Amino acid sequence: MSGAAYVAGDWGTSNLRLYLCASDGRVLERRTGQGVAALRAAGSPDWTGVIKGATAGWDERLPVLLCGMVGADIGWQRVPYLPCPVDTAALAQACVPVPGTRVRIVPGLSCTNLHGAYDVMRGEETQVAGALRLEPRLRAGRHLLCLPGTHAKWAWLDAGSVTGFVTGASGELYALIQQHSVLVRAAAARPTDAGFAAALLQLDRHPQAAFAQLAFECRARQLAGEFDADTAAGYLSGLLVGSEVRAVLAEGGRPGEPVVLVGEAALCAAYGTALRHHSVPSHLLAGDDCVQAGLHAFIREELPRENP
Amino acid sequence: MSGAAYVAGDWGTSNLRLYLCASDGRVLERRTGQGVAALRAAGSPDWTGVIKGATAGWDERLPVLLCGMVGADIGWQRVPYLPCPVDTAALAQACVPVPGTRVRIVPGLSCTNLHGAYDVMRGEETQVAGALRLEPRLRAGRHLLCLPGTHAKWAWLDAGSVTGFVTGASGELYALIQQHSVLVRAAAARPTDAGFAAALLQLDRHPQAAFAQLAFECRARQLAGEFDADTAAGYLSGLLVGSEVRAVLAEGGRPGEPVVLVGEAALCAAYGTALRHHSVPSHLLAGDDCVQAGLHAFIREELPRENP
Questions:
Q1: Which residue of B216, B217, B241, B254 to mutate against A (max A Cβ within 10 Å)?
Q2: Which of A22, A75, A223, B39 has the fewest CB atoms found within 10 Å of its own CB?
Q3: Do B247 and A215 touch (CB under 8 A)?
Q4: Statement: residue B301 has pLDDT above 90
Q5: Which residues pair with B165 in a beta bridge?
C-alpha cells in the first residue's frame, strides 16, 4: 500500500493486532489474528508462517515491530526484561531482531517494586511509551500511570523514564472468582456501581480486614438478601480495585498530577472511581491508541537505520 | 446393632459421614456416602431414599441427627441460621425435624461479624459444640476457636456461647488460584514451609499491600527464579492464612488463651504456624472428633424426649 513505512503489532496472550502504518504513524490498515496462547495450545507454532500469512499482500520489505507476550517464554522468542529506570529510547534500542526475519520484538520491563519484590511487565511498556508520545507533558516531572487489565500495572514516571511499577492481579482474581467460586453466584453477573461503592466504604471502615474475609461477604450478603448477584460482583470488583488503589496511594505516595489511566474504558472507569473516592483525579487514554503510538515511537528510533 | 442409641451424620457439600452411636456417644459403626452437591448435580434427590439406603441394617427406630449443608438451600430441607449469641442447648432445641422421618437437622449460625457484615456458618456450629464437650475448660471464660476449611471460621466463645464469628474464604481462594490461575504454575504444587514463612514476613513488612499485588509475586518471583512452583504455592497459602490471622488479632483482639484449632491436621498446622508467628499459642482438636462430640451433645438434649 502506498505510503506504508512499517508494520506494528501487539501480539498478546489472547489476540494479535497488526497495523500497517505510514511513516508518521498513521494506521493504513488493521488486521487481527490468534493470540500466543491459542497458537501454543495448538502445538509448536510456525511463527514465521503465521506472521507471513497475517501480513500477506503488504510490502514484505517493511520492518515489523511487535510487542507483548510474543517476547515471553510462551512466545516466538524470549526477549529480556530491561531493569528500571528505562526510557523510550532505551526500549527502542533494545528491541531484539528475530534471526532470518525483518521482525523485532520489544523487550519487557522489570523492577524491584514498592513491596521490595521483583516485578515484570510485557506489553504495557509500549503503552507507557505511547502515553509519553500522546501527552508531551508526561515527559517532564513525576507522574503516575495505571494500566488496568488481567494484571494491572501502576507505573511511576520521572522525567520520561519509568522508575518503577507494581502489578496487581485484580483482573485475574475477579475473573477466577466470578467464574469458578461460590462467592458470586451468577456467572453472567454485571457488577453494579452500588456494590462497587459499598466495597470502597467497607475498605475505609476496615482497612486491616483480609481480602478472603471481605470476599466472603459477597456470599453471606446474598444469603441475607442484602445483595443480588450483580451487586455481589460489583462488591468483589470494588474490593479488588479499591485495595490496589489504597495500597498505591499509601505506599507509593499521592501523585501531584492526575493519574493517567491507560486501557479499556469500562475497566479504567472502575479505577477512576476508586481514585476519585480518595480525591485523586485521573484521566483516560485509550489503550489501543497508546500501543500504536508507542510502537511508532520505537520505530522512529529504528527507521533511520532501516531506511536511511 | 446392640447398644445403638442414635445415628449421627455430617452431610456436607462433598461427603456424607454417618455414625451409628451408643448412648454414651461411642461410635459403633461408620459409613460414608455422597455429598449434597453431587446429589443435586444428578437431579432432584430422593433424600429419604438416600438416608434409608445409607442406614440399611441399622435399627429403623433410632433417631437420626444431621448437620451440615443438608440444611442449606441446596440440601434436603432449609433450616434457619440462629443469630448469635447461641449456646449448645439452644442449638439442640432448635434442631428441625424433617416431616415423615426420624431425621432432625441442626441449624446454622448467623451473626454480624467484626466487619459489621452478616456472616453465616453451617456445620461448624456442631464442631464448636463438640469442642465444648471435649474440652470442658472452654465452657467458662472467653476463647477463640479457628475452624480452617474452604471457608475458615473464627468463632469467639464467652461462657460457652458463640458470641460471634468471622469467615475467611482462604481455602476456596487458594484452590481457585492454584487450579486455574497463572500465578502458581503447577497444578500439583505442594506448598513449602519456606514459601509460607516468606509470605508472613512480607505481610509484616507491607501490611497495607493489596492481596492482588502480593499474589502476583507468586508469578514474578518464579520468572525471576526466586521461587519454584511449590514455594509459590506456599507463599500464596501464607498470604491468605497470614492475612486472616493478622486481621483477627488486630480487629478481634489477642486471645488470652491458646487458640483452639478444629479441623484437619495439615490445614490447622498452617494456621498454627501463622498464629505462632504472632506469638499466639494454639492447640488442635480433630474435626471429626468434634463433629461426633457435637452431635452427641445435641442428642443428649434430645434423647430424653425420644427415649424417656
A1: B216
A2: A22
A3: no
A4: no
A5: B155
The answer to whether the Cβ–Cβ distance between B210 and A243 falls below 8 Å is: yes
* Residue of B116, B170, B210 lying closest to A168 (CB–CB): B210
Nearest CA in chain A to B170: A212
pLDDT of residue B53: 95
Is B250:B115 a contact under the CB 8 Å cutoff? Answer: no
**What is the β-pairing status of strands B64-67 and A4-11?**
unpaired
ipTM confidence: 0.94
User: Could you give the dihedral angle defined by the CA atoms of residues A267, A189, B74 and B123, in that order, rounded to the nearest 10 degrees?
Assistant: 20
Question: Measured between alpha carbons, how far is A86 from A226 in angstroms, rounded to an integer?
Answer: 48
Handedness of CA B199, B200, B206, B208 (dihedral sign): positive
Instruction: Give mean pLDDT, residues A166-189.
Output: 90
Q: Do A213 and B118 touch (CB under 8 A)?
A: no
Strand-strand pairing, B103-105 and B96-97: antiparallel
Find chain B residues with C-beta within 8 A of A178's C-beta. Answer: none
3-state secondary structure of A108: strand
Structure confidence at residue B302 (pLDDT): 57
Mean pLDDT of B99-126: 97
Asked if residue B72 has pLDDT above 70, the reply is yes
The answer to whether residue A300 neighbours chain B at the CB level (below 8 Å) is: no
- The number of C-alpha atoms within 13 Å of B49 and in the hemisphere containing its C-beta is 4
**B188 touches A: beta carbon within 8 Å:** no
Q: Quick one: closest CA in B to A117, which residue?
A: B217
Q: Helix crossing, A170-180 with B170-180: angle to 10°?
A: 100
Show Cβ contacts of residue B286 under 8 Å, excluding neighbours closer than 6 positions: B262, B263, B265
**Chain segment A197-208, per-residue pLDDT in tens:** 999 999 999 999
**Interchain contact, A215 vs B117, CB within 8 Å:** no
Q: Give the C-alpha separation, B163 to B177, whole Å.
A: 33
User: Residue B91 — pLDDT band, cuts 50, 70, 90?
Assistant: very high
Hunting for cell 520489544 — which residue is that?
A: A106
Contact, B213 vs A168, CB < 8 A? yes
Confidence of residue A276 (pLDDT cuts 50, 70, 90): very high
Residue B86: which of B53, B32, B129, B148 has the closest Cα? B129
Q: What is the pTM of this model?
A: 0.94
A52 in contact with B, Cβ within 8 Å: no
Query: Does residue B230 carry a pLDDT above 70?
Result: yes
Of B118, B151, B244, the CB nearest to A210: B244
pLDDT value of residue A199 = 98
Closest CA to B128 of B104, B144, B105: B144
State which amino acid sits at residue B108. Answer: G
Q: Are strands A27-34 and B118-121 parallel, antiparallel or unpaired?
A: unpaired
* Cα–Cα dist B111/B92, whole Å: 18
By the CB < 8 Å criterion, does B41 face chain A? no
List, in sequence order, the alpha helices (H) in A158-228.
170-180, 193-205, 211-223
What are the tens digits of pLDDT across the range B157-175? 999 999 999 999 999 999 9
Q: How far is B203 from chain A (nearest CA, A)?
A: 10
Q: Do B176 and A172 touch (CB under 8 A)?
A: no
User: Which residue from A118, A220, A250 is facing B117, i.e. has the nearest CB?
Assistant: A220
pLDDT of residue A185: 74
